[in-house]
């Protein structure tokens, strides 16, 4: 942005419906630009603006130390779709060749931003289960390893819950896999309601989920698991005129109360406790 000769500038990006400032200089409160009508129109309509002696644009009150004589608002387009907006402000009018330089700059910026966003999205998609939107098994186990290592270093507890939806095959056989998928998504949301902020939920496989509970003892883990169990049991998944109810069985373990040699042993212990929950009538929480 410095190559444009501007005294102040900002690049704004739209992500998940919100406009945020990617980079700025010379602007005291750059985030306030996100609500400026010129910026919003540039995003929504791809409009460009050159504002001389601006009296109404919000950048006037947020720029530091100088009153801009000219402000340029330029959409950054990739394949003719605005993906960002560039704002430039200068104490004196821009030179005549500024528009040509700006066109070259925004074209290069568009390609760079698109590639960066695509890479970020691909990384995000690789880590998430496509059906439920939570961590998949592979990346969830990476997070478990990280939390286990942190707990060992700090000598703090680490709990693990293994959930399984009881008789889930009957749901698929009765209503079909489309409805089964809806139940899985609903259960994901219900588990999120019952766990704490900072707990890590992942889809372990099929109808089985895992929750990683940093700092949780066996009693803490049991309380969280039983809260989730009640939330699931008291909820229904709507499908047409049908209200589909399911229950879950849960296995619990926590270290260092259980002496384990690694995080995989913690999983094995919780899985064994889950097995006992299912074999003793289901809709239960069992501690290893």
From TrEMBL:
GO biological process: cell adhesion involved in single-species biofilm formation; negative regulation of bacterial-type flagellum-dependent cell motility
InterPro entries with a match to the protein in the record: Diguanylate_Cyclase, GAF-like_dom_sf, GGDEF_dom, Nucleotide_cyclase, Rev_trsase/Diguanyl_cyclase
Any single Pfam family the record assigns to this protein: GGDEF
Protein name as catalogued: GGDEF domain-containing protein
Positions of the GGDEF domain: 156-288
Gene Ontology CC: one annotated term: plasma membrane
GO molecular function: diguanylate cyclase activity
Organism: bioreactor metagenome
PROSITE patterns attached to this UniProt entry: GGDEF
């Amino acid at each position: 942005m410095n190559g444009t000769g501007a005294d102040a500038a900002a690049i704004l990006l739209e992500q998940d419906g919100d406009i945020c400032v990617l980079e700025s200089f010379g602007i005291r409160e750059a985030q306030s630009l996100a609500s400026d009508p010129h910026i919003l129109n540039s995003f929504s309509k791809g409009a460009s603006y050159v504002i001389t002696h601006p009296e109404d644009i919000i950048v006037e009150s947020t720029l530091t130390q100088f009153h801009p004589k000219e402000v340029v608002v330029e959409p950054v387009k990739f394949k003719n779709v605005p993906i960002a907006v560039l704002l430039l402000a200068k104490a004196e009018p821009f030179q005549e060749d500024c528009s040509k330089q700006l066109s070259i700059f925004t074209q290069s910026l568009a390609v760079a931003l698109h590639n960066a966003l695509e890479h970020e999205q691909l990384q995000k998609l690789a880590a998430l289960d496509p059906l439920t939107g939570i961590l998949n098994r592979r990346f969830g186990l990476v997070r478990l390893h990280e939390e286990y290592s942190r707990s060992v270093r700090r000598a703090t507890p680490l709990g693990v819950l293994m959930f399984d939806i009881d008789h889930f095959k009957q749901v698929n056989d009765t209503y079909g896999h489309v409805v089964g998928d809806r139940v899985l998504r609903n259960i994901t949301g219900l588990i999120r309601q019952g766990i704490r902020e900072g707990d890590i939920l992942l889809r372990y496989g099929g109808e089985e989920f895992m929750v990683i509970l940093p700092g949780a003892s066996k009693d803490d883990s049991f309380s969280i698991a039983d809260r989730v169990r009640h939330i699931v049991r008291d909820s229904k998944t709507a499908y047409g005129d049908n209200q589909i109810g399911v229950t879950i069985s849960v296995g619990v373990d926590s270290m260092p109360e259980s002496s384990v040699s690694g995080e995989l042993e913690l999983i094995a212990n919780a899985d064994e406790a889950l097995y006992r929950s299912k074999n003793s009538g289901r809709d239960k929480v069992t501690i290893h």
